[in-house]
């Protein structure tokens, strides 16, 4: 029987999918078992590079339980005939929910207000205290219009926001109309957004989509929300834009050099910082793990996996 090695605990649904094709090992001591592994189920935090692959000569598939797969050297896997799969789609709704939670928390300054209350600074209702921004009638800019971008756009109508988006591929007109939004180029997106939210994958083209020049082109008093990938943003320039007051605030779930944060971010009151929890619901994480198991099982059975990386 094949060996499926996992770097993280698998839920029963995922284990059931592997049961008739593989013996599951790990997560304890998984690195020591690489030599016997036919499949590896892994996470964003597991670097799959040439050195790891050298230790795993039997490997047929690297099945990521995440949508992102930048932790895997895909070219190196392909050169060795190893399939690489990921878990797209199933986390779109949970990530869109978290995006809106973070957006609201940032624009209405919730963490700052709560921190102050806990510190004993609530001495009665303050007419001019903790003033945030209005969403009704404001412009939401969305960069990246994949499944998560669309799920975010769907929710914007409830807050009365106008939507402009920029992405490599433009949606069909009827879908744009249904979501009440229009495509714009990068310059138009930066200039139009009261709140800009990022949902594009990290590629050589999208790295530092927001740099010092881009922040200068954003509206004074606008907000940035990032639940996609930290390196879409030049974090040092973001800190400058927040310090100068050009940006009113930022809500971040991801960081350029994760898990490290630019030290300037921690000093700023107008930033809401989360530890990469966009997809962190029990059902969503179960679906992600189950998809990884389904992909690994397919390859071990000699079938094409449902979700090869593009
Ligand atoms: C992913 O799957 O790529 C996410 O960043 C984890 O939620």
Fold and architecture overview:
- It is a single chain.
- With 310 residues, this protein is an alpha/beta fold.
- The longest helix has 19 residues, at 282-300.
- The chain has helices at residues 12-18, 50-54, 74-79, 92-107, 110-118, 147-156, 173-179, 186-192, 212-217, 235-243, 263-267, 282-300; strands at 2-6, 22-25, 39-42, 61-64, 83-85, 139-143, 162-166, 181-183, 195-198, 222-226, 247-252, 271-273.
- The chain is elongated and about 70 Å long.
- The model has no long low-confidence stretch (mean pLDDT 97).
- Helix 1 (12-18) packs parallel to helix 12 (282-300) and helix 4 packs across helix 6 (147-156).
- It has a 7-stranded parallel sheet, with helices on both faces.
- It has 2 domains: 2-90 and 282-300, Rossmann fold; 92-273, 3-Layer(aba) Sandwich (Rossmann fold).
- Helix 10 links the parallel strand 10 and strand 11 (247-252).
- It is built from 12 helices and 12 strands.
- The site of (2R)-2,3-dihydroxypropanoic acid has 7 residues, from loops.
CATH topology of the largest domain: Rossmann fold
From the 3D coordinates, which CATH architecture of the largest domain would you assign? 3-Layer(aba) Sandwich
What is the N-to-C order of secondary-structure elements (H for helix, E for strand)? EHEEHEHEHHEHEHEHEHEHEHEH
List bound small molecules: (2R)-2,3-dihydroxypropanoic acid
Helix proportion of residues, in percent? 25-40%
**Count of all domains:** 2
Count of helices? 12
Helix/strand/pairing class, anyone? Answer: alpha/beta
Overall radius of gyration: 21 Å
Largest sheet: 7 strands, parallel
Quickly name the level 1 CATH class of the largest domain.
Answer: Alpha Beta
What sort of overall outline do the alpha carbons produce when their principal axes are compared? elongated
């Amino acid at each position: 029987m094949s060996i499926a090695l996992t770097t993280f605990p698998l839920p029963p649904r995922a284990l059931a999918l592997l049961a008739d094709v593989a013996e599951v090992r790990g997560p304890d001591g998984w690195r020591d078992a690489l030599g016997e592994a036919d499949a590896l189920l892994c996470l964003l935090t597991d670097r799959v590079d040439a050195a790891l692959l050298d230790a795993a000569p039997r490997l047929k598939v690297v099945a990521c339980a995440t949508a992102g797969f930048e932790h895997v050297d895909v070219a190196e896997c392909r050169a060795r005939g190893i399939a690489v799969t990921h878990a797209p789609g199933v986390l779109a709704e949970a990530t869109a929910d978290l995006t809106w939670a973070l957006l609201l928390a940032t624009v209405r300054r919730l963490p700052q207000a709560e921190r102050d209350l806990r510190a004993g600074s609530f001495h009665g209702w303050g007419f001019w205290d903790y003033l945030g921004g209005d969403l009704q009638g404001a412009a939401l800019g969305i960069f990246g219009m994949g499944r998560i971008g669309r799920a975010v756009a769907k929710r914007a109508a409830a807050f009365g926001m106008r939507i402009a988006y920029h992405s490599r591929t433009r949606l069909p007109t009827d879908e744009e109309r249904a979501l009440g939004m229009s495509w714009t180029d990068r310059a138009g997106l930066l200039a139009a957004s009261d709140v800009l939210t990022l949902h594009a994958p990290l590629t050589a083209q999208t790295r530092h989509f927001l740099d010092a020049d881009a922040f200068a082109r954003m509206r004074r008093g606008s907000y940035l929300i990032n639940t996609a990938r930290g390196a879409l943003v030049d974090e040092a320039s973001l800190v400058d834009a927040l310090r100068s007051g050009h940006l009113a605030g930022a809500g971040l779930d991801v960081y350029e050099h994760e898990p490290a944060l630019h030290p300037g971010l921690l000093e700023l009151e107008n930033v809401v910082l989360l530890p990469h929890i966009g997809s962190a619901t029990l059902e969503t994480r179960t679906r992600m793990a189950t998809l990884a198991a389904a992909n690994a099982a397919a390859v071990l059975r000699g079938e094409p996996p449902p979700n090869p990386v593009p």
